[in-house]
Request: fold
Amino acid sequence: MPGDDGLTDQLDVVLVRALLRDARATLAALAQASGLSTSAVQARVRRLEKRGVITGYRAQVAAEAVGAPLAAFIEISPLDPAHQDLIPAQLEDLGEIEACHSVAGDAAYILFVRVAGPQRLEELIRRIRDTAQVTTRTTVVLQTYFEERPPMVLKPAQ
Reply:
């Protein structure tokens, strides 16, 4: 059936966009935004969840408020590229790492990390190097203008 893996029509697009703006929107608010009944909205949202379009709901927390105001990108490359690449699994338990991206370019991976300050960043870099046997190159974030933008929801699946 077409659309089993995505948005089936423009009403799905409207609902997903509304939930991206406010994941805590009530069924009544979603019904008003889409022109559907609350029961129809509930059924559609459940289908979107079941198909994996909506993968979850989460709270966003201010990094400064939880003691991790310093953000940085750390490029990492294995010391010996001939060895089996287990880097993501080796670093998975380091809670300061918010994201690990496999990339094309000079580095093998780019990590996004948040820590309490420069000393904690230095300690984290040391742990990353020791744990995964990698070289690193770090860029400290001075200011963030926007982040955590949701993917653009343009149209239903074809």
